[in-house]
Design a protein that fits this description.
The chain contains one helix and 17 strands. Helices cover 4% and strands 51% of the residues. The strands form two sheets. Strands 1-2-3-4-5-6-7-10-12-13-14-15-16-17 form a 14-stranded antiparallel beta barrel. Strands 8-9 form a two-stranded antiparallel sheet.
Length: 328
């Protein structure tokens, strides 16, 4: 039986309700964009597959978040104007579990000098469950005598999302999306009133230097929730060496107070500084990545950071594996 301290349950509820960042976070977001934007589907040369697992706040925090995602997508059509994809996510915090499956469809237009504007739509279902019967007190005994913890709860909710993705292959990109348009009343499932609508904004570019042997790629991801919650900002800088090794870092912060980031109460609260390394296996299309998050907030006292593993594969529509790595 999974044990969870009541104080941790309470802290989880408070953190989710106050920050309203209910979607899973990924430090290697630059390699996992279908999880944030359906318009990204089909943006590569061929089939692209990404699997990612995340263990957050490892060590002393019982019931800390664990997340995983699996996505695949590919372009179709003579001019690769149509994209289709699938994204499956699992997210767990305390006794609460979430499983989401979304199918994506995109259509892109050529704009100017090989620029493309992609419009994306996704739809699917989200399963939420809370195993209250597994909650134990500080003495290790169950709380089945308390009505709040006597029965488990679960629900299944449909949802859909929209996205825009403007890009030039292997040069730059900008995106905006609302992955889950429908706000849901969760009721007794999590003791949190609603599943809030999230807005995501992303961007990045590649700058070749040293005759192309070194490439610099800055990127950002912004998550905004229009309730009384701060905006989460991830600012990333990566270096690609000889088209084989990625190395870089991300700074994650909460900005503003959720209503007006320009008022006198606005703030910037550092959450973590993250290190990322990725290896592109030559001439295979395979990429292997690892990220470590060093917590900067008060939670630093109670954990040894977060770990994230990523495995990806890019294939060409013509059959052989892509010989040069994808930058986006």
């Amino acid at each position: 039986m999974k044990k969870l301290l009541l104080v941790v349950v309470a802290l989880c509820f408070i953190a989710l309700d106050a920050n309203a960042q209910q979607d899973a976070r990924y430090t290697q977001f630059m390699f996992n964009k279908l999880a944030f934007n359906p318009a990204y589907a089909g943006s590569g040369e061929g089939l692209s597959i990404t699997a990612l697992g995340r263990m957050q706040w490892v060590s002393q925090i019982d019931g800390a978040p664990n997340s995983g995602s699996f996505s695949l997508h590919s372009p179709f059509g003579v001019n690769k104007q149509i994209g289709a994809g699938l994204n499956v996510e699992y997210d767990e915090i305390g006794v609460h579990q979430r499983l989401t499956a979304m199918l994506s469809y995109s259509y892109n237009f050529i704009v100017g000098d090989n620029n493309r504007l992609s419009l994306g739509l996704q739809g699917g279902v989200q399963s939420l469950s809370s195993a209250y019967s597994e909650v134990t007190g500080t003495d290790g005994t169950t709380l089945s005598g308390d009505p709040v913890f006597s029965e488990d709860a679960s629900t299944l909710m449909p949802n859909f999302g929209l996205g825009l993705y403007f890009y030039k292959p292997n040069r730059y990109y900008l995106g905006a999306s609302v992955p889950h348009l429908l706000e849901s009343d969760l009721g007794s499932i999590t003791q949190i009133p609603y599943w809030f609508r999230h807005y995501h904004f992303m961007g990045g570019l590649v700058v070749p230097v040293a005759d192309g042997k070194l490439k610099i790629k800055p990127a950002f991801l912004v998550k905004y929730v229009p309730v009384n919650a701060p905006t989460q900002v991830d600012a990333n800088l990566m270096f690609l060496i000889a088209d084989a090794f990625w190395i870089g870092a991300t700074y994650r912060a909460a900005v503003g107070n959720g209503t007006d980031v320009f008022n006198e109460n606005a703030f910037v609260d550092s959450e973590s500084i993250d290190a990322i390394v990725v290896f592109n296996v030559p001439k295979t299309g395979v990429r292997i990545g690892y990220a470590y998050d060093y917590t900067l907030s008060e939670l630093q006292k109670y954990n040894n950071g977060s770990h994230e593993l990523m495995l990806g594969l890019d294939l060409s529509n013509q059959g052989p594996r892509i010989r040069t790595p994808r930058y986006f």
